[in-house]
Design goal:
The complex is a heterotrimer of chains A (304), B (267) and C (511). With 267 residues, chain B is mostly helical. Helix content of chain B is 73%, strand content 0%. Chain C is globular, with a radius of gyration of 25 Å. Classes of the chains: A mainly alpha (304), B mainly alpha (267), C alpha+beta (511).
């Protein structure tokens, strides 16, 4: 098992190099550069040119990337062009906020989607199923940022129930609603597939009560693809978090990344990219391991 | 008649209506979408059924022209994604081996990127306009299609009719395009339809951030961007384009689901 | 009898003192909002208004501006300029202490300027201390006297002399990016730094030893609220005491005083004078006549801005109203175009991404020019990309026209904008060349008295507007709301409402 984990972690490295290479070169195709931070048009161009040299931006892009890579290997991600603070510190201050936002949303999504999906599958075709199907589709069609605006309008501005910044409730509500639909439907489809299997029919034929059939046999197997789906939807959850954090002024890593992109704060952009990629790969790894735990067949197969 | 089909029909009707409205926009729009007609924001009235925006322009006209943009971006973006995805997936699935490894690795890398972040990065580097929005969305959403096509090719390529085609001397290209591909079109079409729904959402998110279609050309997304400051004072500016987006995306989802069921009768 | 009078007088004085002493809240906290993230709390490195708002209460300079934008003593009790204008001597107040207790001397002042002028330090202000490429030399004469020796007479130097001073005993020999310092800045201003929670707030507390007198506020809380709607809500609910107000929301608010004043900025459309499209003055004048400023200001600002016709803002002492104004006249515009033999003129306007007002202005201008038969396309560029285009050291540059603004600065000298030598490398990116203006600009810098400079600049503005190198568009107004519990505000003016933070106080609650 540990060999497997180690192998997967090793695969991280070429993945990270690929991602960072693409990001670095894409950012440097920019017609502008970090002197975007200096928004005062009264600043003389010679000053900007001098600062550019101080930051090493006059070297060819390839060399700049190799320099960055060398430092990154020693976990030195440089200093933010805006605040001068080490990138690691900037990310370290904000990452917990993003993780908080995402985990809370995640948990709530699971708490809602699993029961709803299961019940929808078990009671396929009923009013419950149809109602939630329509609701799911509608939720999937709403642009996240629009939902965010409408919520902000309703719950903060008009009703005043919730402060519009610094508070978790609205960002979580938006993330949950946008993420709920897909997972619920997937859970339903997976449960349906399992319910059609032979061994379920056998269990029923044996005379086992329906509840036992569902919980002991069907559910466990229906959950398997969900774990994979969760792993796969992590990148989207991050992406959603980026926009939500910006709209609700939530001090997370997503907002840091977005503003770094707009101001060409290269060290921070690279840091956020690496961190996000690592988290995504780790999430996938955990999903795979969880998968193996839930399904003993996989575990044995790996041992061979 | 199964309930699902009703939804798909609803979707088809709405999308067709939208397409017709968009194409006919220059004829049916009451005013020029860019014309500054009033000196302040106005709510819905006889003169302006959907009200005006903060620059005094008629929202009904803008939303019609905006539809042209948003829908055409969706179509072309998906076309781009399909082209890349089908090509890569077919090559990987058919030839296998090192080529397959490399292509799948690349696909994995792209999948590990939070797409929004990548699109943001690219768009902030280029000068955003309609063309690069289409290309960028297409270039970041082909991965699912590639995997799908590859999967199809892997299962199909050892089948009898392929062997037969090879036996009579068909070149690889012919086999790929004339024999295997047409059989795998089902899932690809479903993907494409759902992809269009996603593309509309992505374009509107990009335009909302200012990285998509640039004003003053109206798109549903950038109309939402303009509406932000006026949420309380002029909610119609935000509600109308939002409703159009939701309807369009919902319809495409219904159609996609309907197609999925007709092409993969499993249930 | 006298005794009784004396006693009464005495008691009255004491009573008055007591009344005043308990008239304001000794432990008052002022809550302000910041519109964006702080870059770094270091006056020589930061360039954004958010950071400078905080630096303004933590640090002090030799001089500062008063509500009329005149320069008055701050840490320097006086200064004098030699007859030939080359030697400026500043006399520091004695007994000024840094927040850590150390004495502030002329050594700190020299250290500050030398650091800015160090090419390895990323300070954009460096260019302000070089005149025609030659550096200003700073000398410490004694503990409380500093001398600046200029290579040429240069009256605008007074503005750069107001730079906030940083402590030598802490920063000498340290890392040039000074990150440790911006996490715990030490200044000599009325308030001391307490804490900075990233993305959330900055807290500062009263400096009891402030040389300008003990501040009346106990502490100031700066909250980061990037969205202006959110900020307005926080103002209405009392969470913060001061906020900018969008034009559309500028009507009476309970418990809040509304203030508006002109800002030291103007927005304009600049023509690339080296482009054949705009070579003919009549074309530029025609386009100037085609602009309906009333419609622009009405739609964008709901009327809270003033139309601009000259390269100087009315709040500046050098402002002159005697200039060529191109008042809205579309017929005259069309006439001028046909006189110049121009038909089907089309050009591209560059604007920077993210500025809502300029985007709206570009859209409106597009429609206004359409009415006289001119087609204008709008091209949006990322700010740094736009700067790259207009600052490129080539001739001619790759643009037709640009919509942008200038902050006019406290000193009216605009050498870098209008002097022919400042093209293509300086701020004169439109390529304006007028020998008469060059002479006037040089004279304006040389002259030391306000009255003589004012005459020079008035003549200059008249001449420039005749050439119509820019279409001057508007001077924005700052719209602010301040909670009525805050006292000590300055008269509304371009220097803001809280010029002397040590004089601001929170009123006692009336029970």
């Amino acid at each position: 098992m540990s060999r497997y984990i180690f192998r997967r972690l090793l695969q991280l490295i070429p993945l990270l190099i690929g991602i960072t290479l693409i990001t670095f070169f894409v950012m440097h195709l920019a017609p502008g550069d970090p002197t975007a931070l200096f928004t005062d048009p009264n600043i003389k161009p010679e000053e900007l040119a001098r600062i550019r040299v101080n930051w090493g931006l006059d070297k060819p892009v390839g060399i700049q990337y190799l320099i960055w890579l060398k430092n990154a290997a020693r976990l030195d991600f440089g200093y933010s062009y805006i605040s001068g603070k080490p990138v690691i510190e900037e990310i370290g201050e904000r990452l917990p906020n993003t993780l908080l936002l995402m985990s809370v949303s995640f948990i709530i999504i699971l708490l809602i989607s699993i029961p709803v999906g299961v019940i929808s599958a078990v009671k396929k075709g009923s009013w419950f199923d149809n109602l939630f199907t329509i609701i799911s589709f509608i939720f999937m069609s709403i642009p996240t940022f629009w939902l965010a605006l409408v919520f902000m309008l309703l719950f903060s501005l008009k009703l005043g129930w919730v402060p519009s910044f610094g508070d978790l409730s609205l960002p979580v509500a938006v993330l949950v609603i946008s993420g709920l639909a897909g997972i619920t439907r997937y859970q339903r489809a997976s449960m349906l597939e399992v319910l059609n299997q032979e061994y379920i029919k056998v269990a029923r034929a044996k005379g086992l009560p329906e509840i036992i059939v569902i919980f002991k046999h069907a559910l466990r197997n229906a959950l398997i693809p969900i774990i994979t789906l969760m792993g796969l939807s992590i990148p989207d959850l991050f992406g959603g978090a980026f926009i939500i954090e910006t709209i609700f002024a939530w001090p997370g890593m997503g907002r840091l990344g977005v503003s770094a992109v707009f101001s060409r704060n290269y060290p921070v952009i690279m840091g956020v990219t690496v961190m996000t990629a690592v988290l995504i790969v780790l999430a996938n790894l955990i999903a795979d391991l969880g998968y193996a735990l839930v399904d003993p067949r996989i575990r044995y197969a790996k041992k061979e | 008649m199964r309930k699902k089909n009703k939804f798909a029909v609803f979707g088809l009707v709405v999308i067709t209506a939208f397409c017709v409205l968009s194409i006919a926009a220059p004829i049916i729009a009451p005013y020029d979408p860019g014309e500054i007609m009033e000196s302040e924001i106005q709510g819905p009235s006889l003169r302006h059924p959907f009200g005006t925006d903060d620059l005094g322009r008629d929202i009904l006209s803008r939303v019609l022209y905006g539809g042209r943009i948003s829908l055409s971006v969706a179509v072309i973006a998906v076309a781009v994604a399909l082209t890349i995805g089908v090509l890569l997936g077919a090559v990987a699935g058919y030839y296998g081996g090192l080529l397959d490894e490399m292509i799948m690795r690349f696909t994995d890398i792209m999948l590990s990127f939070p797409t929004i972040f990548l699109i943001l990065a690219i768009q902030s580097v280029l000068t955003p306009n309609i063309v690069n929005v289409m290309v960028v969305i297409g270039a970041t959403s082909w991965m699912g299609i590639a995997r799908l096509v590859r999967g199809e090719f892997l299962t199909v390529k050892e089948r009898d009719f392929v062997e037969a085609a090879r036996a009579i001397g068909c070149g690889n290209f012919r086999i790929i395009f004339k024999h295997i591909l047409p059989n795998s079109m089902g899932p690809v079409i479903v993907s494409g339809t759902l992809g269009m729904a996603g593309a509309i959402l992505t374009e509107s998110a990009l335009s909302f951030l200012g990285l998509g279609v640039q004003p003053p050309v109206p798109s549903w997304g950038n109309m939402l961007m303009d509406s932000q400051a006026y949420l309380i004072d002029a909610p119609w500016m935000a509600v109308i384009p939002g409703v159009f987006i939701v309807l369009a995306v919902l319809s495409l989802y219904f159609i996609g689901e309907g197609l999925r069921e007709r092409l993969n009768p499993k249930e | 009898m006298i005794r009784i009078l004396f006693k009464t007088f005495f008691i009255t004085i004491i009573a008055a003192g007591l009344v005043f002493a308990i008239d304001y809240n000794q432990n008052g906290r002022l809550n302000l909002s910041l519109g964006g993230e702080i870059s770094v709390i270091n006056p020589i490195l930061s360039t954004d208004t958010t950071s400078s708002a905080i630096e303004g209460v933590i640090f002090s300079g030799l001089v500062k501006v008063d509500k009329n934008l005149d320069f008055v003593p701050d840490m320097a009790r006086s200064w004098k300029v030699s007859k030939n204008g080359l030697v400026w001597t500043f006399y520091l107040k004695r007994g000024i202490k840094w927040h850590d207790g150390a004495q502030l001397t002329a050594e700190d002042v020299k250290f500050t300027f030398d650091t800015i002028m160090n090419p390895k330090v990323n300070s954009v202000r460096r260019g302000d201390y070089f005149i025609d490429g030659k550096p200003i030399v700073f000398k410490v004469i004694d503990k409380y006297t500093l001398r600046a020796i200029l290579p040429k007479p240069f009256s605008p130097f007074i503005a750069s002399a107001g730079m906030s001073i940083i402590p030598k005993h802490i920063l000498q020999g340290k890392e040039l990016d000074m990150t440790f310092f911006s996490r715990h800045p030490i200044g000599a201003g009325p308030f001391k730094f307490v804490e900075y929670k990233t993305g959330d707030h900055v807290l500062v507390t009263r400096n009891d030893d402030y040389y300008g007198g003990r501040p009346m506020l106990k502490e100031i809380m700066f909250r980061i609220i990037p969205d202006e709607n959110t900020s307005l809500i926080a103002l209405k609910s009392g969470e913060i005491d001061e906020s900018g107000i969008p034009a559309k929301d500028f009507h009476p608010i309970k418990g809040v005083g509304l203030y508006k004043y002109d800002a030291l900025l103007y927005t304009y459309l600049g023509f690339n004078l080296k482009s054949p499209k705009f070579a003919d003055t009549r074309v530029r004048q025609a386009l100037s006549y085609a602009v309906n400023r009333k419609q622009l200001i009405g739609l964008i600002f709901r009327g809270f801005a003033s139309p601009a016709y000259s390269p100087s803002a009315p709040v500046s002492w050098a402002y002159s109203d005697d200039v060529h104004k191109y008042l809205y006249d579309p017929d005259k515009a069309k006439q001028l175009l046909s006189e110049a033999g121009v038909r089907d003129l089309s050009f591209t306007l560059l604007i920077n991404h993210g500025n809502k007002e300029r985007e709206k202005a570009a859209t409106i201008l597009q429609q206004q020019f359409k009415k006289i038969g001119v087609k204008m396309d709008i091209r949006v560029l990322e700010w740094s990309a736009l700067l790259k285009v207009i600052n490129a050291r080539k001739d001619p540059k790759d643009y037709d026209a640009v919509l942008i603004g200038w902050s006019t600065g406290v000193d009216p000298d605009s050498y870098s904008i209008w002097h022919s030598s400042q093209y293509p490398g300086g701020l004169n990116f439109i390529g304006y060349k007028n020998p008469k203006i060059d002479k006037l600009l040089d004279a304006g810098r040389r002259e030391q008295t306000k009255s003589s400079r004012k005459k020079i600049y008035a003549e200059m503005y008249k001449e420039i507007t005749a050439d119509a190198p820019y279409i001057f568009l508007w001077y924005p107004q700052v719209l602010t709301g301040v909670n009525n519990r805050v006292g000590g505000l300055s008269e509304p003016g371009p220097a803001g409402l809280m010029i002397d933070m040590e004089k601001i106080y929170i009123k006692r609650e009336v029970k």
